[in-house]
Amino acid sequence: MYEKPTLFELHRDTDISGVSGTGKVAEGAIFSDGEAVIHWLGAWPTTTPHPKGIASIKAVHGHGGATRVELADDPSGRLARIAEAHSKGVINGMTSGLCQECEHPHPCPTFAWATTDRDLLATWDPADDEVAS
């Protein structure tokens, strides 16, 4: 069963390209299979898919840390960093089907936990993310 997408925003501190500006420059969603889409705001609105997920968004649009991915329900950005670390592994430009951090089949339990809508202050029970047999 698929979960609902996790929403995020891109916040840019420095506009290296001179096109998108600073502050909140884009909105996006991470889907339950790890793929993502981003929608740029401003004078040239554009929507683009990112089959390799949040890791590819950071690689393409991060500009060496000038752009931050912030989950809509996580103002500290902690869950976005966890989801990014547990994105699909890429070998020679192809996805391996495994998590790049823990090498479990993607989406791994940690990615699922970081991208599932839940009370961020609640205590996490690993049984919450177990797949029913």
How would you explain this protein's 3D organization?
17% of the residues lie in helices and 30% in strands. The chain is built from 3 helices and 7 strands; from the N terminus they run ββββαβαββα. It has helices at 54-61, 78-85, 109-115; strands spanning 6-12, 23-30, 36-40, 46-50, 67-71, 88-91, 94-99. Helix 2 runs antiparallel to helix 3 (109-115).
Outline the secondary-structure elements.
Layout: E1 6-12, E2 23-30, E3 36-40, E4 46-50, H1 54-61, E5 67-71, H2 78-85, E6 88-91, E7 94-99, H3 109-115
Low-confidence stretches: none
The overall pLDDT average reads 77
General form: globular
Question: Strand-residue fraction?
Answer: 25-35%
Content-based structural category? alpha+beta
Count every beta strand, where a strand is a DSSP E run of 2 or more residues. 7
Helix percent reads 10-25%
**H/E series:** EEEEHEHEEH
Q: Count of DSSP helices?
A: 3
- Terminal-residue CA separation: 12 Å
Largest beta-sheet characterization:
5 strands, antiparallel
What can be said about this structure in brief?
This protein has helices at about 55-60, 80-85, 110-115, and strands at about 5-10, 25-30, 35-40, 45-50, 65-70, 90, 95-100.
